[in-house]
Design a protein that fits this description.
This protein has about 130 residues and is an all-beta fold. It is about 0% helix and about 50% strand. The protein starts with a strand and ends with a strand.
């Protein structure tokens, strides 16, 4: 099991930047064993995949809507995963969720692939 707590959300102007953090508290397994991801959910929309990362930082994955602007990374020594968000747009406004999955089975873009979720952090981008 792993507990996840996001932080770093807030209000920012279009073109600005934010860095989200997700602190993990694993039990029974090391944090580095968990593939991690960030999802987001805008009002009235389904939760969607934004970015994912393997255990070793060796592979990262992005949705087309954030590619080139967002960067996911992790610090296994600190049990933390980050999402650096640059060139923010109003359409990036959403609640951002950190998620962990047990292994590499399943499609990393699907919410049902992930067993553990944080409570979310609000990101609001104003023009």
């Amino acid at each position: 099991q792993v507990q996840l707590v996001e932080s770093g959300g807030g209000l920012v102007q279009a073109g600005g930047s934010l860095r989200l953090s997700c602190a993990a508290s694993p039990s029974g397994r090391s944090f580095e064993d968990y593939p991690m991801a960030w999802f987001r959910q805008a009002p009235g929309k389904e939760r969607e995949f934004a970015a994912g990362i393997t255990w070793s930082n060796s592979h990262t994955f992005y949705s087309e809507s954030v590619k080139g602007r967002f960067t996911i990374s992790r610090d296994n020594a600190k049990n933390t995963v980050y999402l650096q968000m640059n060139s923010l747009r109003p359409e990036d406004t959403a609640v951002y969720y950190c998620a962990a999955r047990e292994d590499y089975r399943g499609n990393y873009r699907y919410t049902e692939t992930y067993a553990y979720w944080g409570q979310g952090t609000q990101v609001t981008v104003v023009s």
